[in-house]
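Work Package 3 (structural annotation) set out to generate three-dimensional models for the target panel prioritized at the project kickoff. During this period the team completed the workflow that converts sequence records into discrete structure tokens, so that structures can be stored uniformly alongside our sequence database. As a representative example, we reproduce one entry of 244 residues exactly as it appears in the project archive.
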Amino acid sequence: MSLIASNLASVRARIADAALRSGRAADSVRFVLVTKTVEPDRVREAIVAGARDLGENKVQEGRRKAEALSDEPVRWSMIGHLQSNKVKDALRFASEVQSLDRLSLATALEKRLQFLGRGLDVLVQVNTSGEASKFGLAPEDVPAFLKELAGFHALRPKGFMTLATFTPDEHEVRRCFRSLRDIRDRALHEAPQGEHLTQLSMGMSGDFEWAVEEGATIVRVGQAVFGPRALPDSHYWPGAAGAS
């Protein structure tokens, strides 16, 4: 077994254990394998080992990688900040956007999707850490944003995404995850999309077990499988010290 395959199996086992500790089924958490900075041949190793759900942060890198791996049975998600002028390219490979954080982006996505005649699963990104360097809606702005989204017919809001504070302080990290869970729980009862807003994408390589224990339904993990990256995480996540 290759190191990538071994690491992939280890992360899956840790996710399953955390799910069981939180009183859920071992297979109740979706594992998005983050492939940023990882070359296609190494990603293919993970695919051979069973990875099917892949996530990218940068549009050009994601498009290049998706084309190189177009023969593989995988699903791509856009998990990084998405500029409105990159929507056309993002939709060439992404079947989901986890970083919807403003109406201008929703408008750009809707316009392109209407042209393509297709819909798109989206998650609303929330800044639960309160850090100015991070993207995402302020928690108090989420209800109004969801009401606005009800008028976008090609977008299918499925839940929420967040990045916790980049700190070894478990209490603070868990606070961010609980904040997103509370936002989701309120939205299930109060938002126009109601019962469709079930998903919580939270947790990366350094904190995904805490995230699962706090209710994550999706985790985004890369370095725990592929190893440390050559580029600093701040190149991909504003304010990051050890992301995904």
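The first strand starts at residue 30 and ends at 34.
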